[in-house]
Amino acid sequence: MTLPRATATPADRWTRVRGPVLGAAVAAGLTVALHFRDPHESGSWGFCPSAAMGVYCPGCGGLRAVNDLTNLDFAAAASSNLLFIALIPLILGLWVRRLVVGWRGGGPMQPTRVHWWLGAGLIGVAVVFTVLRNLPGSWLAP
Question: What does 86-99 look like in DSSP terms, one character per residue?
Fold first, then answer.
């Protein structure tokens, strides 16, 4: 079964891919900013409220991980936030999927349906990750 090819003008195509393209542009700009303004320096990007209370949330270390990735230091990035590094392929895959659907002329994408057990599993992984990184002497702490 072949899908019908949509005949769309370039303006229509831009309308469909504008969101993913602009989102990528914002992410690229923030990544460049993180490269030049090092989040490893205390207070350079403000202070995290949960870290100030002595609790590392699942996102703690994400800015440092992006900075480490821009310096091609993959070990340091994984040390900063292993969960974030593990989710990058998923995030990129969803972005590419949205871009391709828009480019090919598909209509607005419906939210991705996730089985309840997959959503519960992702939340469970985040909770376990948070608990493990807050244990004394944990190697998962940022």
Answer: HHHHHHHHHHHHHH
> What's the predicted TM-score (pTM) here?
0.78
Report the greatest alpha carbon distance in the chain: 60
Residue carrying structure tokens 């542009």: 25
97-110 pLDDT, tens digit each: 888 888 888 766 66
Torsion of CA 83, 88, 93, 95, to 10 degrees: 120
pLDDT digits (tens, 9 = 90+) for 34-69: 999 989 888 888 888 887 788 898 888 899 999 999
What is the structure's pLDDT at 100?
87
DSSP letters for the chain: --PPPP---HHHHHHHHHHHHHHHHHHHHHHHHHHHS-TTSTBBTB--HHHHTT---TTTTHHHHHHHHHTT-HHHHHHH-HHHHHHHHHHHHHHHHHHHHHHHT--PPPPPP--HHHHHHHHHHHHHHHHHHTSTT-TT--
